[in-house]
Design brief:
The protein is of the alpha/beta class and 221 residues long. It has one domain: Rossmann fold (3-Layer(aba) Sandwich), CATH 3.40.50. 47% of the residues lie in helices and 19% in strands. The chain has a seven-stranded mixed β-sheet with strand order 4-3-2-1-5-6-7, sandwiched between helices. The longest helix has 17 residues.
C-alpha cells in the first residue's frame, strides 16, 4: 500500500479557500468588510512569506463561526461552494486524485485551513480522509477557537503521524509516500515522504525543489 497526501489551497484548487472564505464573509456583510478584508489580506501575505502566527490567525478566522448558528453557516457555505470554490476546481487535480484512488493508495488532504471550510470541498473531490485545523465546538456551536495542533508547517507532521497511529500505521507501513504541495510552509512534511512533489509552487518551494531534484508539476496547464 502507498500513501498519497495532498495540500489543498493553491495545489488541488486554483486559489486559496481560506482567504476566499474571508472575502466571501466580507462581501456578504457577515463581517465588517473593510477591516476584515484588510486583516485577511495581511494574514495571507504573512502566510505566503512563511511568517504567519497560526494561532493568532486561526482565532481571527474562527471568530465569525461563533456568531452564527450551524444552519446559517451551512447555508452560507453552500453559496460559497457555488460562487467561490466551483471556479477553483481543476480537472487535472481531479485526475491526479483519481489516479491514486484507483491504485488503492491511502489518500488524505492535509491542510492548515479549518475543517468547516474545507470538508465539503474534500468530499466533492472524492478524497476519503481529511487532516485539517479543527474549530472547537460546544453545544452544537463553534466556540471561535481552534482545538489541538493546527495542521500548519511542522504541525502537519504531528497531525499526519497521529492519524496514521489511529489506523495502526506509520511511515514505514508504506512502500511509497507522496505529498503534493505548492507552499514553502509545507517543506517539513515534504521532507518526510519518499516522493515529494511541488505543484505550481511558490518561488521558495520551486527553488528548493530544483535544488533537491524534486518533481515540479502544474495542474493548471
Amino acid at each position: 500500500m502507498n500513501l498519497a497526501l495532498f495540500d489543498l489551497d493553491n495545489t488541488l484548487l486554483a486559489g486559496d479557500s481560506d482567504h476566499a472564505w474571508g472575502e466571501f464573509l466580507a462581501n456578504t456583510g457577515v463581517v465588517d468588510g473593510v477591516e476584515y478584508r484588510r486583516r485577511n489580506d495581511a494574514y495571507y501575505e504573512q502566510y505566503k512569506a512563511g511568517t504567519l502566527d497560526v494561532i493568532e490567525f486561526q482565532c481571527f478566522v474562527m471568530e465569525p463561526l461563533a456568531r452564527l448558528s450551524r444552519a446559517e453557516l451551512d447555508g452560507l457555505h453552500t453559496r460559497f461552494m457555488a460562487e467561490c470554490i466551483a471556479p477553483m476546481m481543476l480537472p487535472q487535480a481531479r485526475a491526479l486524485v483519481r489516479k491514486h484512488l484507483d491504485a488503492g493508495d491511502l489518500c488524505a488532504v492535509v491542510t492548515a485551513t479549518n475543517a468547516f471550510v474545507v470538508a465539503p470541498i474534500v468530499r466533492q473531490l472524492g478524497i476519503p480522509h481529511l487532516i485539517a485545523t479543527i474549530p472547537a465546538q460546544e453545544n452544537g456551536r463553534f466556540t471561535g477557537q481552534p482545538r489541538g495542533i493546527p495542521a500548519f508547517q511542522k504541525g502537519k507532521i504531528a497531525r499526519v503521524e497521529a492519524w496514521l497511529e489511529s489506523l495502526a500505521l506509520n511511515w514505514q507501513s508504506f512502500a511509497q509516500s507522496h505529498f503534493y504541495s505548492d507552499s514553502l510552509n509545507d517543506l517539513p512534511l515534504l521532507e518526510c515522504v519518499t516522493h515529494p512533489v511541488a505543484v505550481d509552487p511558490d518561488p521558495t518551494l520551486r527553488a528548493k525543489a530544483t535544488e533537491r531534484g524534486w518533481p515540479v508539476v502544474s495542474l493548471r496547464a
